Amino acid sequence: MRPLTDEESEAVFAKLAHYIGDNVQLLVDRSDGEYCFRLHKERIYYCSEFLLKKASCIAREPLLSFGTCLGKFTKSKKFHLHITALDYLGPYSKWRVWLKPNAEQQFLYGNNVLKSGIARMTEGTPAHQGVVVFSMNDTPLGFGVTAKGTADCKRADPTAIVLLHQADLGEYLRNESFLT
C-alpha cells in the first residue's frame, strides 16, 4: 500500500467531484479523525490513519484489503468507482434521483432508467452529471449518469432513457462468485 501520486489523486478526486461536487473536502477533513486514500493492488482504499497504521504491520502480498475500497484503476489508468463507495457518495451527493418502486427492481438488475421510472429529480440537474439513485424512502440504491437534464426530462417521451446505470446494490449478488 502506498500514497497516491499526483496524477492518481487528480483522477480519484475528479471522479468523486463528478458525484459529490465540493463535498470531497468533507471526506478528507473529518471531525472523527484523520482519513486518507491509499493504493493497494490497483485499488483505492479510504481508511482512517489508525487503521492504516495497523495494516502497515502486514506484508504486502497477504494483505487483501483494508478500509473501504472506493474503486480501482483500469489498465488504461482510468479510475472506476465501485458500489462500495455508495456509503460515502450518498450523504454528500449534490444531485439525486428518486425512483418509483416499479423502476427500482429494473435498476437493481443493472438496467438504465426511463423517464417513466423517475419519481423525483434534484432541480437543475445538468445532462451528463453523476447522480446518486435513491428509493422513495431515501435508501441509496446506486449511482449513475444523467442522459438528460431536468429541463430536458420534463419534455421527454416517457420511454426516453434519463439515467445511465453505473453501479447498484444488486452487483453484490450478480458478482458474488468474483468477489474476494
TrEMBL record:
UniProt cross-references to Gene3D superfamilies, sorted A to Z: 3.10.450.220, PUA domain
One term under GO cellular component: nucleolus
Pfam family membership, one: UPF0113
Record keyword RNA-binding present: yes
Keywords from the UniProt entry: Nucleus, Ribosome biogenesis, RNA-binding
Occurrences of domain PUA (ranges): 95-170
Top-level taxonomic group: Eukaryota
Cellular localization per UniProt: Nucleus, Nucleolus
InterPro entries: NIP7_N, Nip7_N_euk, PUA, PUA-like_sf, PUA_sf, Ribosomal_synth_fac_NIP7, UPF0113_PUA
One GO molecular-function entry: RNA binding
SMART domains the record matches: PUA (SM00359)
Stated role: Required for proper 34S pre-rRNA processing and 60S ribosome subunit assembly.
Family according to the record: Belongs to the NIP7 family.
Name of the protein in question: 60S ribosome subunit biogenesis protein NIP7 homolog
